[in-house]
Every structure is written in C-alpha cells, then in structure tokens.
Amino acid sequence: MSNVVLGVTGSIAAYRAADLVREFRRRGHRVRVVMTRAAQAFVSPLTFETLSGERVTTHALEQPEEWSVEHVGLARWGEALVVAPATANVLAKMACGIADDSLTTLCLAFEGPVMVAPAMNPSMWRHPAVRENCKTLEARGVRFVAPAPGVMACGEEGVGRLAEVEGIANAVEHHLARGRLAGKNVLVTAGATAEPLDRVRVFSNRSSGKMGYALAEGAYRRGANVALISGPTPLVPPAGVEVVRVTSGEEMFAALKKLLRKPAAGRDKADVLVMAAAVSDVRPKTPRRTKAKKRDLPQTVAMAPVRDILEDTAPLRKRVWTLGFAAEESSRLEQGALGKLRKKHLDAVLANPVSKNGVGFESDENEGILLLASGRRVRIERGSKAEVAGRIWDAVEEALGRGRSAARGKREKPSSKNS
Ligand code: CTP
After folding, report:
1. 81 has which bridge partners?
2. Any ligand 1 atom below 6 A from CB of 188
C-alpha cells in the first residue's frame, strides 16, 4: 500500500481521473487529490473527495496562505506524484518551474517519483513546444505514461487520449516497487502455439494465454522489465509490457533464444523466465502454403514433433531462474511435474491440474502446487488468474531471496511450510 498524490488538470479526460482514484483504492493505495482551477470546471471536488475518502486540495492563487503550507505537507505524505490527465499547459509550467497554484507548487516541492499521463488534442501533442517540454521533463526524471491513439472528445482522431487507468496504476506501482523483482529482466511466454496445416487451418490447443498475461502484468507491477512472447490470442497485452507475437513453436523458440541472448534494446541479460505457454507438441509435416479445398483435405495428416523449447534453451539459461508449467491429470499431478522439473532443467515448476472443472485451460481461475528444485513445495490456492499470478510471484520473490539451488534438481529436505 502506497500514498499517491494525484494531480488533476483541466482536460475533458478529468472525469476519467475519478476511475483512476477508484483503481488506486481497489489496489489498496491511499490517494489525495489536488485539482487545478480548470479541472474543477470539468469535475466537482466532491466527486474526488467521495471516491478518495480524503479532503481534496483545490486552492488557487487567491488563497496563497493556505496552499503554500499545505503543499509541503502533501509533498512529504506522498510516495508518488501522478498528474493525470496532464494538459499541455501544466506540462509547460512543470518544465519551466512555474508555481502559481497548489498543484504546480507541489510539483516543485515533491522529491519522490513524478509521473504524468498527458491528454490533449493530437495537434497539440505533436506541437514542437509540447515535444520540447516533454523532453525537458524526461531529462529530469519525470516518467510518462504515453497518451493513446483514438478518437478525441472533439471528434478528431490521433494520439492524445489519456492512457487507460489500469495502465497508469500499473506504471505507478512499477516505479514504486521495492521487492526482489524490481529492476529484474523477466521473460514470460504465454498462450497456445499454432501449427499450420494450410494457409487457414491450424493444429493448436485450448490455452487462452490468460495465465501468462496475468504473470507478465504481475511482474511489471512488481517493478520488473517484462518481455512477453505471446502465441495467438485476442487478449490485450498489459500496459508497460513489451510484446513479441509468434504463431508456431519454432517462432516461439527463435524469439526466446533471441531474448535470452539479448533481452531488449539497452537491457542486460534475462534474470527470470516463466514458460507459461502451452506449446503444441506436434505439427503437420508438410503444411500447404495455400488454402486446400475441402474435398482435397487428407483423411490422415502426417505429423512431426515440435522441439521442446525449454529443453533446447537449457544451455542459454544457465543463469536464468526458470519456472516451467506442467499440465497434468490430477492423478499424477506432482509426480508428472517433478519429472518435468528435472528433465527440463528448471528452478521451479507449477503443477497445474487439467482435469478439474473451472481451473486451468480456458478458465478465468487457476490453482496448483509450486514445486521448487530446492525441494520446497508451495500450495497455490485457487483464485482468479491475477490472484494466482500474485501468489506465484510471492513464492518466486521468496525463492530469489533464498538464492538459487547450487545445482538444479539437487533437493533439500521438503519443508512443510505452505504445503
Ligand atoms: N514446453 C516446451 N516445449 C514444448 C512443450 C512444452 O517448452 N514443445 C514447456 C511448456 O511451456 C511448459 C513445460 O514445457 O512450461 C511443460 O509442458 P507440458 O505441456 O505440461 O508438458 P510436455 O513437455 O508437453 O509433456 P506432456 O505433454 O507429455 O505432459
């Protein structure tokens, strides 16, 4: 739980700041809102007061004796200052150090991380003066949650819409995170892979990708730099996460190999890999390049095995803490998962039941047992995939704190804790 100061400025997107307050509260953070006078023309302070449960700071130039003291108190109380929506006007004032109301004065007094989520007309966002101001602020360490493309309130289309509130909240948590994943480079694979029979038909499996996406978002919220290698899925990638899209197992292997060698521009090596993807184990031996006519479809299809991505990347991930997934029938859940832990050179494996209704493949919920190479066993209670991702990351952060097992597969005495 963190203390967040939210600055709201005079954009039509000010009404979406109300949802942002709710999102911060839903995640357990405390929020205190500071509004510019222009913001109050769009939304009433009472809205923010009701949603935040805190007094809203609205003082403008005419009551300097009040705000000149209050802004210092707020600056000390807040762990992060977020200006959302941020207008071109407030960005200019921040860049120049102008302090003519509570919010801009607070911007000068605040010593913690500052984030801005701009919202304005696309032509204004492109204007050289705004570009310059953004550059100045970035050089000073202000973090931007970039505006999104879309149709503006004025009807114009382009880049300028306030980012989604979940994305803004994720970015704030990412920059405030102090746990073991903060600053780590994390790779996550997600979804099913699909192997072509012809131009339109594929062999695949029922994986939705939801678990991998939830894990990627969870790691980002805990401060990690996350790259997500995703099989085909209609899911919207979590904001702040870099996405590499692939279709076949061979493409996933190539993408992972590349990221294991060089995670991303300007980044160091990967620290953690979570292989949540459900890789199709077989592929048609001779896919056709064109769409076959129904009458020409073969009665039987010759299949070839798809390489095992985890096994084939083992030499590249000797220093990468690796968590695999094991999709198993309940009758051989732990036994099957332990076999994969050893065979695939993993630091941990999530034994994931496939025969239980409502969890795992195609479901919104999941559960499992996390088996670590050290011999520890952590029960991951049933919950939404976001909750399960949180429980998995709690266990991974704890394991990272204990240090890696000297040799994977070398087991210490099983602990009864959490089991
Ligand atoms: N995996 C992989 N490459 C494959 C198949 C699976 O890297 N060709 C990875 C999965 O991403 C998962 C782990 O290996 O992290 C276990 O996958 P799972 O489907 O449970 O097991 P398989 O190895 O395919 O074995 P089986 O289907 O016989 O249980």
Report:
1. 5, 114
2. no
Each residue's pLDDT tens digit, 118-167: 999 999 999 999 999 999 999 999 999 999 998 888 888 999 999 999 99
> How far is the centre of ligand 1, averaged over its atoms, from the C-alpha of 273 (Å)?
15
- Whether 85 lines ligand 1, by a CB cut-off of 6 Å, is no
Q: Are strands 143-144 and 303-305 parallel, antiparallel or unpaired?
A: unpaired
Entry pTM? 0.91
For residue 245, the Cα-to-chain-centroid distance in whole angstroms is: 16
- At 84 the three-state DSSP class reads strand
CB of 273 sitting under 6 A from ligand 1: no
Distance CA 262, CA 170 (A): 25
The predicted structure's pLDDT at residue 154: 80
Contact 212, 230 (CB under 8 A): yes
Ligand 1 centre and the CA of 344: distance in Å?
9
For residue 306 and ligand 1, the question of a CB distance below 6 A is answered with yes
The catalytic residue among 96, 107, 134, 154 is 154
- Using DSSP's 3-state secondary structure scheme, residue 46 falls into helix
SS (HEC) of 193-226 = CCEECCCCCEECCCCCCHHHHHHHHHHHHCCCEE
Strands 148-151 and 282-284: unpaired
CA of 218 to the centre of ligand 1 (A): 23
Neighbours of 43 (CB within 10 A): 19
**Residue 80 near residue 112, CB atoms below 8 Å:** yes
Does residue 154 carry a catalytic annotation?
yes
User: Cβ distance 377 to 414 under 8 Å?
Assistant: yes
Q: Is the CB of 215 under 6 A from ligand 1?
A: no
Nearest CA to ligand 1 atom 8: 308
Structure tokens at 269: 């090596």
